[in-house]
Amino acid sequence: MAERVPSAPPRSLAVPLTGFGIGAVVAVLVGVFGKVHDPTLAGTTTLGFRTVLAMKVVVTVAIGVIAVLQLVGALWLYGKLGVPAPSWLGTAHRVSGSVALVLMVFVAYHCLWALGLESGTLADGQPVSTRTVVHGILGCAVIGAVVTKVVAVRSRRAPGWFLPVAGGLLFTLLVAVVTTSAVWYLSAKGWPARGY
Q: What's the predicted TM-score (pTM) here?
């Protein structure tokens, strides 16, 4: 009698549609919270930097570096670099992705709690800059993309294209957020100083 080989679970387009749908809902809910929340510095930290903003710049630069390493690691794992991936790379990729996720949640909390989602005019009557509005919207989209990427990583029934597309979307949004925050800050003000 021939032994039956278990078949792979059927691939379903419902998984990516659900993943993108949940991600979009989360992004909108985060944006609504950021808009209706009364921003406060209570419950935030500066990690020894002069301001919450300076601390977020440094942590965001770290997230940007990890995101680039994640992209290189993913390309290497999928054999796109033409060099065999070492056995430890999968573990390193998962660990660095988890570190990036924790840092993203840390920065997002400080963005939403301390600053909220700004638009319109500030308390002094000055208009909120376009860069700030775009950065806030992109930040909300990043949180939604993280949710979509988690669905892609955890699903065994998703089509093969879903994980790279979800990862590419997250990477693209992260680059846009880092550019509209940390890169802008560093070009305008230089590296943030520690201390008070």
A: 0.86
